[in-house]
Amino acid sequence: MAKLSVGLDIGFFSIKAVSLISDKDQYRLNTLGVIPTPQPGMVSEQESDLEALADAIKKLLTTAKIDTKDVIIALPESKVFTRVIDDLPYLTDQELQSAIRYASEEFIPMPLSDVNLNWQVLARSDGKNKNARTIVLVIASPKNVVNKYMKVLSMAGLRAKALETDIIAATRSLVSRNPFSPGTLIIQLGATTTDFAAVSQGLIWLTRSISTGGIALTRQLVQQFSFEALQAEEYKKVYGLSQDQMEGKVLEALKPLVDIIVQEGRRIIQAFDAKYPQNQIKRVVLSGGGAKTPGIVIYLASALGLEVQEADPWYGIVKDNSMAVKLSLEAPLYSVAVGLALRE
After folding, report:
1. Which CATH architecture has domain 209-308?
2. How much is the pLDDT for 156?
3. Per CATH, domain 3-76+143-179+312-341 is 3.30.420.40
4. Among residues 93, 99, 174, 194, which one has the fewest Cβ atoms lying within 10 Å of its Cβ?
5. For the residues of 135-203, what is the DSSP string, one character each?
6. Which CATH class is domain 79-141?
7. Chain-wide mean pLDDT for the chain?
8. Fold agreement between 3-76+143-179+312-341 and 209-308
9. What is the tens place of the pLDDT at every residue in 150-171?
């Protein structure tokens, strides 16, 4: 029987919604939409700001003709604590529970009573082997962050069917469903952060989030050229990292910040390849709004020495031919929303 699933991605600059219909093993795009996020959005604690956000979500779903009340949403990577714990011996599911709580205290800088703790076993070797290990992906979501998202959904008259992180959703839409994917570094270029995930065999083995995002790049142009913010944003979108535009002046201004992203990417690739030499990172997939910055694919490919490609979350999803061009133009923007809608 066909099922409808809706992914709702509440981003800093825009809110995206995607509804998919699944029938047997096939997914079909039903409808999608995007709307600007009313500022300051989720950053605010003010009731009126959260109500404005809820109103925008309602408007988006109405415009996109989505009438279900159940949605799947994502929390920003920067607001949660994610870690792969790979130094555990062979443990049963029951033994894991207390081991994970104990191990989590090392990387979660708040009382465990203040977080929702979830985990997924990535690998477990045979218990009879003396070198047997259990490798677990642990995600701790602060309850106050979760509660705020739940409050906004409630104001919009919606229910959360499930909740996960941006990078898990993006991984599902960009890598996990393609059996031919090599070891991949996903770089999610957002407004306030850049998130990284090293993915192999469809699973996340390493994640990181840094506070260099699109807003920081725009600010750099404001300072460098004494632009207004809107003008700086326009220059970033039009000229970006193109060597042959504006005599490369915009590239030169943005280079120091983009190189921070490059260094972090390089560090993650080296750490992953050293730890899992049999599954090395072979390519980079760029996702999020920043993936459309002119010249960024070529710049990162040259800096990292790997194939770099723009995200395409529509792989394997049946869609109307008339929408193909529009969907490919905006593809990286929808990685998280598509990944959420694909969640079983």
Report:
1. 2-Layer Sandwich (3.30)
2. 98
3. yes
4. 93
5. EEEEEEEEHHHHHHHHHHHHHTT-EEEEEEEHHHHHHIIIIIT-TT--EEEEEEE-SS-EEEEEEETTE
6. alpha beta
7. 94
8. yes
9. 999 999 999 999 999 999 999 9
